[in-house]
């Protein structure tokens, strides 16, 4: 069973893959889920982004920051 925070993150990925459909509403839901989980930042897997390059990650961080969400990206280690 996933937490509200995990569901909110998955909804963000879905929105990003659907040309940012309902992204602002999903960011609001993410903020609520983060507050409920007492989290200060949202961790995303860069490999799951539509535009997985430095420019795409920075643009996402900037967009979310303007809406009150700090975004960081998980680094996979092998």
Task: Tell me what you see in this structure.
The chain is mainly alpha-helical. It has one domain (4-74). Helices cover 53% and strands 10% of the residues. The chain contains three helices and two strands, in the order ααβαβ. It has a two-stranded parallel ribbon with strand order 1-2. Helix 3 links the parallel strand 1 and strand 2. It is globular and about 30 Å long. It starts with a helix and ends with a strand. The model has no long low-confidence stretch (mean pLDDT 94).
The succession of helices and strands, N to C, reads: HHEHE
Low-pLDDT runs: none
Number of strands: 2
Instruction: Give the helix level as a range of percent.
Output: 40-55%
Strand order of the largest sheet: 1-2
Portion in beta strands: 5-15%
Number of contiguous helices = 3
Q: What would the principal axes of the Cα set say about the shape?
A: globular
Which radius of gyration do the C-alpha atoms yield? Answer: 12 Å
Summing up helix and strand content along with how strands pair, one would put the structural category as mainly alpha
First-residue to last-residue Cα separation: 27 Å
What is the total domain count? Answer: 1
Largest sheet: 2 strands, parallel
Q: What's the rounded overall pLDDT mean?
A: 94
């Amino acid at each position: 069973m996933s937490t509200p925070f995990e569901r909110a993150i998955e909804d963000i990925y879905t929105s990003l893959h659907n040309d940012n459909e309902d992204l602002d509403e999903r960011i609001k839901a993410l903020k609520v889920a983060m507050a409920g989980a007492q989290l200060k930042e949202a961790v995303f897997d860069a490999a799951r982004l539509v535009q997985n390059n430095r420019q795409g990650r920075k643009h996402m961080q900037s967009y979310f920051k303007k809406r009150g969400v700090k975004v960081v990206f998980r680094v996979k280690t092998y």
